Amino acid sequence: MSRLVYSTDRGQLCPECHQAIDACRCKEIAEQQRLNNSDGIVRIRRETKGRKGKGVTIVSGLPLTGEELKKLAKELKQKLSTGGAIKDGELEFQGDVRQALKPLLEGKSYTVKISGG
């Protein structure tokens, strides 16, 4: 296995597939696998792990791709008046907003479950 990270003929290389960064399709493949493994149920959970005790609400299982996910995140953040981010195909909102999120997502015709305690 080659540990080459830069080549004068191809430029910077992807560490996963060892292709040139411009030709790498690793993110697209990972996104497609995430969508294929979805069971159609949107899950909302609360997490504090690794956040110094600060709680966040995670929304996973959305069958949306990059731009659609960004658009939905922006809309939900505005309606909830809270901050948030998109990480690994999951929406992350600051604070415990599970009860407020559920009707908003159900209004967009998603099957929603609140998971965890």
Automatic annotation (TrEMBL):
GO biological process, one term: translation reinitiation
Keyword Transit peptide: no
Entries under SUPFAM superfamilies matching the protein: eIF1-like
Entry keyword annotation includes Protease: no
Top-level taxon of the source organism: Bacteria
MF GO annotations: mRNA binding; translation initiation factor activity
Transmembrane regions listed in the UniProt entry: none
Domain SUI1: from-to ranges: 46-109
UniProt xrefs under InterPro entries: DENR/SUI1_TIF (IPR050318), SUI1 (IPR001950), SUI1_arc_bac (IPR005872), SUI1_dom_sf (IPR036877)
Key words of the record: Protein biosynthesis, Translation regulation
Family: Belongs to the SUI1 family.
PANTHER family tied to this protein: DENSITY-REGULATED PROTEIN, DENSITY-REGULATED PROTEIN HOMOLOG
Name of the protein in question: Stress response translation initiation inhibitor YciH
Organism: Spongiibacter pelagi
